[in-house]
Write a structure and sequence with these properties.
By secondary structure, the chain is α/β, with parallel strands linked by helices. It has 14 helices and ten strands. It has helices at 2-24, 53-60, 63-66, 84-88, 98-106, 151-164, 180-185, 199-205, 231-236, 238-257, 259-266, 278-293, 305-317, 327-330, and strands at residues 38-44, 69-75, 93-97, 111-116, 123-128, 143-146, 172-175, 191-195, 210-213, 225-230.
Length: 337
């Protein structure tokens, strides 16, 4: 009986050692499955247009896919706020003016630019070819048409007046909506503020002799179109932000190197491109947009923090923003470096 007890105890001790060894050696876990491409929605403001060709090319040529993205391109409605969908989480990224982003940040939106889209400011003064206006200083005493006191046309006019040493009281600002051609050709205004790669192109296609007058003799104290997101999205998904920015830059490089690729990619995104005259109009707009993408040489997406600081200072002094904005908080090159 005592011998049987000793045998039983020995067996129990051996079993305990085995169980202890098993507890110390965890079973191998199965490898986790790959997460798949990151889903993102990129806001392209208002109507489909060849100006967004780098994104169309990134979609059609597989650039988004190669960078691990499942990207949806979303055009805004005409009455939709520029950053409304972004702040609401319906979009993760949007194309917008750097100056528009700074104004929104000053109003409390936690936005940040992560890549430069246009490397030159696209707004110009447009005057009849026979006009005596040669510089912004010549606007004194004249009527200047703008869509309204908002957006880049308004900011551009304020910059032009500032650079010329003029104020609003030195000109008559006329809000003309989106009727630049009618307003200028019927002499309702002496000049209009518009986009070199849109309004000026449309004047030319309509056969109306006009020319562009730069906003300033030197650099305009405004930052042009950028790729933007929210700080919360950037902090939560830094690698996805890099993929989106890289895709944008790759799309720009492809369009600059092979402009014909933009027209082909645009056919699946611009419903009106097959209408009479639409392809010629798109080609003219594209040719006018190419200099904006390659203004700094090879497109890189990198931004100049000092230019952002100068813009903030100008917008504050011009009354375009009523709160200070730190340039380093409004932009970062981390996604494109």
């Amino acid at each position: 009986m005592a011998r049987l007890t000793r045998v039983a105890l020995a067996l129990l001790a051996a079993l305990a050692l085995v169980l202890t060894g098993c507890a110390r050696t965890p079973a191998p876990t199965a490898p986790s499955a790959p997460s798949g491409p990151a889903k993102v929605t990129i806001g392209l403001t208002y109507v489909p247009d060849i100006q967004f060709a780098p994104f169309y090319v990134a979609a059609e040529d597989g650039i988004f896919t190669e960078n691990g993205l499942d990207a949806t391109l979303r055009h805004h409605g005409a009455q939709e706020g520029l950053f409304t969908a972004l702040v609401a989480g319906q979009e993760q990224y949007v194309i917008a003016g750097g100056d528009e982003l700074v104004q929104a940040r000053a109003e409390g939106m936690d936005l940040v630019a992560i890549g430069q889209y246009y490397h030159a400011y696209p707004v110009v003064l447009i005057v009849p070819d026979a006009s005596a206006v040669q510089s912004a200083a010549d606007l004194a005493g004249l009527r200047v048409g703008i869509p309204g006191r908002f957006g880049e046309s308004w900011f551009g006019l304020k910059a032009a007046l500032h650079e010329a040493g003029l104020t609003e009281s030195d000109v008559e600002v006329v809000e003309i909506g989106y009727t630049a051609q009618a307003a200028l050709t019927t002499s309702q205004v002496d000049a209009v503020v518009g986009f070199a790669n849109n309004d000026l192109v449309q004047f030319g296609l309509a056969g109306i002799p006009t020319r562009a007058v730069p906003l300033a003799a030197g650099d305009v104290p405004l930052v042009s179109i950028v790729l933007a997101t929210t700080k919360a999205n950037l902090d939560a998904n830094p690698e996805t932000a890099r993929k989106v920015a890289r895709s944008m830059v790759a799309g720009i490089e492809k369009v600059v190197a092979e402009p014909a690729s933009a027209i082909e990619a645009g056919r699946d995104h611009i419903p009106t491109l097959d209408e009479a005259g639409a392809a010629a109009s798109a080609k003219a707009t594209l040719e006018a947009t190419l200099p904006l993408w390659r203004a700094s040489g090879r497109p890189t997406g990198e931004m100049d923090e000092q230019a952002w600081a100068d813009m903030v200072a100008f917008m504050r002094s011009a009354g375009l923003i009523t709160a200070d904005v730190a340039a380093g908080d409004a932009m970062t090159n981390d996604a494109v470096e």
